[in-house]
Each structure stands twice: as C-alpha cells, then as structure tokens.
C-alpha cells in the first residue's frame, strides 16, 4: 500500500470521529430529558441565559456540520468546520461569561481548536470556489464549451 494512503485514511477517520461526536451532541440537544453529560440542555441553555429553544438551533447547526464533515469534498468540509468554529466560539464565550469550571467546559475549546485546524486544512484556494456549482473535471479544463439550449 502506498505511503500516501495512510495520512488520507487517518484524516478520514478524524473527520468521521469528529462528525460522530457532533452528531451525538446534536441528538442530545433535542433529547428532552437528562443527557450523558448532566441536566437536560433545555435547563442548561436557560441557566446560561439563552431561551430554551436555542438548543434546537445549535443542535441543527451541529448536525448539519457533522454531515458536511463526512462528505469527502474540501468545500463541504471547510463549510462544516467553519460552521462548527462559529458555534464553538459561542460555546467557549458562554462558558467564560458564566464562569463554568474547566472540568465541565474543556470540550468546547478543544473542539474549537480542532475545527479551526480542519477549516484551515480545507481552506479554498479561491473564495469564489465556495460559491461555484460543482462541475465535472472534464468541463473545467479551460476549453470553452458550446452552450446547449
């Protein structure tokens, strides 16, 4: 097996592991009762100063990000990691403002660093690449094609 395959497989495993963590996090945001991590998120969000329904918004963003991370395209992984970076910046800020103890809030800053590294690793060469529709590689060789109507 070529030496280049191992780093690619390792990174794929990292994407899947992170996506599974955030998919689990999204599910627990929707969960009505106690979670693995303590009281229900409906209670935690209110204690943090947010409306209870905000957990659904955050859970949805985490779930969408998890899906984007496992799609093997640089653009989708960049968008997923960037979305997570924004959500996690809010989480870290919330933990700091509420003076949460480090033993309860270490995951948010750790995941923030990981999301930023993934976003940087998948940084688009050109910002317009994020807005372009996916095109087949043969159509992007620089040769103009006739327009079909």
TrEMBL record:
<dbReference type="GO" id="GO:0016020">
    <property type="term" value="C:membrane"/>
</dbReference>
<dbReference type="InterPro" id="IPR032808">
    <property type="entry name" value="DoxX"/>
</dbReference>
<feature type="transmembrane region" description="Helical">
    <location>
        <begin position="78"/>
        <end position="97"/>
    </location>
</feature>
<keyword id="KW-0472">Membrane</keyword>
<keyword id="KW-0812">Transmembrane</keyword>
<feature type="transmembrane region" description="Helical">
    <location>
        <begin position="103"/>
        <end position="123"/>
    </location>
</feature>
<protein>
    <submittedName>
        <fullName>DoxX-like family protein</fullName>
    </submittedName>
</protein>
<keyword id="KW-1133">Transmembrane helix</keyword>
<feature type="transmembrane region" description="Helical">
    <location>
        <begin position="12"/>
        <end position="32"/>
    </location>
</feature>
<dbReference type="Pfam" id="PF13564">
    <property type="entry name" value="DoxX_2"/>
</dbReference>
<feature type="transmembrane region" description="Helical">
    <location>
        <begin position="52"/>
        <end position="71"/>
    </location>
</feature>
């Amino acid at each position: 097996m070529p030496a280049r395959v191992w780093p690619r497989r390792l990174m794929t495993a990292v994407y899947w592991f992170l996506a599974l963590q955030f998919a689990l996090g999204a599910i627990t945001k929707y969960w009505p009762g106690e979670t693995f991590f303590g009281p229900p998120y409906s209670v935690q969000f209110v204690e943090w100063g947010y409306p209870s329904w905000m957990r659904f918004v955050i859970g949805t963003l985490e779930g969408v990000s998890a899906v984007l991370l496992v799609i093997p395209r640089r653009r989708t992984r960049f968008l997923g990691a960037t979305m997570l970076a924004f959500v996690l910046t809010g989480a870290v800020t919330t933990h700091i403002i509420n003076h949460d103890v480090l033993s309860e809030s270490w995951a948010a800053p750790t995941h923030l660093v990981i999301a930023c590294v993934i976003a940087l690793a998948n940084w688009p060469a050109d910002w317009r690449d994020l807005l372009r529709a996916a095109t087949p590689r043969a159509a992007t060789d620089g040769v103009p094609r006739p327009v079909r109507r």
